[in-house]
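## Example pair
The file below holds two records. Each record gives the amino-acid sequence first, followed by its structure token line.
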Amino acid sequence: MPGQQIQTTAFILSRQPSGSDKFEQTIAFSAEHGVLHCLIRQSKSAKAGARGEASLDLFDEAEVWLESTNQGRTWFLKEHRLIHRQAGIGRSYEALKTASAIGSLLARNPVPDESREPVADLLRTSLGALAAGGRPDIVWLKTLYSLLRDEGYPVKQQWWPQLPPADRDAAVQLLNQPLAAQNAGAESVSQITRSLESWVAAETEIRL
């Protein structure tokens, strides 16, 4: 009997060995289905899609055809079509580390059904900014704040008043201005980010 099958567009958030020479574990995020735990067969015939595509890489956006025999707990990649590869991320260690942190953030925390589409848009924007050379520290701060705000967490009502006035002025610029217009010092960005991360740890169930 054939298993459950889906076709969806997804982002590759992580890749790691599965304990088997035949498969690699992959976590993907889809606007339709949320987090997907996938297995990709490691063989010459499966390192490319049926259309001759290159194997999927970290942070790729791809159309994937998946099948599950255990009610969706694990999906096997049958076929894929690459939509976009964020090649620029791999040129910078800090960009790669930040992209991985964003991927882990989504992989660790459930995203409500109604929020998946905007979260996918946010992920696409953040990865694109990193690939284009945007400052990773600012991309992380803007991504985390946007996710909290869009998910309804009271960051403006609770976290914002905790910031010293000088940090509030800097945070306004960081959160509202385009990346190309940013010139904040690294220490200022780090201080604001640490404050937000501390608030998340103390006041929410989100795992960073």
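Second record, same layout:
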Amino acid sequence: MDLYFSLQNYPVSNPLPYDDTGWTMSLMRNVTVKKVADKSLFDQPMTMVTKDVIVPGVIQGTGDVLVVENTTDNVLATFRFKNVDTKMEAAEEDFDLDGHHLRAGAFVIRQWE
């Protein structure tokens, strides 16, 4: 489990760690991983997920500029290619907007309707 959920550290003497660095779940999926030591969790009733779990997106605020947050999720590439005719820019640096900290790579769509 540590391979997937912990940050991977490699000694300087091993500059080529192969692909294990791609399995760091917190970085790969932009999530916070917290260790749960209470094993009684596994005794709780559970239901198998039988179809894709879809989390709806939201649009907050108003205006003629849409910013799509860089969540490091691969669906951002899907979004970009599905909207090939939409002119958009990618932020080159982190920035703050209306109390939200946004990372470099966020899509900025001007004159959005």
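Notes on the second record: Strands lie at 65-68, 89-90, 95-97, 100-102, 107-110. DSSP finds three helices and five strands in the chain.
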